[in-house]
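Budget justification aside, the reviewers requested a transparent look at the raw inputs and outputs of the sequence design task funded under Objective 1. We therefore reproduce one unedited record. The lines immediately below are the structure tokens for a 94-residue chain.
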């Protein structure tokens, strides 16, 4: 934690200022992000199993954000007994 704090303080808080600017930009553009298309394997055509590799694609409209400003997280979950259990997560950034 101390190392992280020192890094944020370096160069007159340059990294902290950059981070605050990025957060402000993302917050302002958040409502402009739109999911245009999601392509995932069809569960009706094949059995989806944990541990196997599948390809999925997401097309987004990101407003004034750049691809470097965003990421996508895939969450695999099971709905059982009126509860949602997360089985796996995977993050991707451009």
């Amino acid at each position: 934690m101390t190392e992280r704090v020192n890094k944020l303080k370096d160069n007159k808080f340059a990294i902290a200022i950059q981070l605050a600017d990025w957060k402000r930009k993302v917050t302002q553009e958040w409502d402009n992000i739109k999911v245009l298309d999601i392509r995932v394997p069809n569960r009706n055509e094949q059995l989806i199993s944990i541990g196997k590799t599948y390809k999925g694609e997401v097309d987004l409209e990101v407003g004034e954000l750049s691809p470097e400003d965003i990421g996508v997280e895939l969450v695999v979950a099971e709905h059982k007994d009126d509860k949602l259990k997360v089985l796996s997560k995977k993050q991707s950034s451009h």
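The beta strands are 34-39, 57-61, 71-80, 83-93. The first strand starts at residue 34 and ends at 39. Computational costs for records of this kind are itemized in the attached budget.
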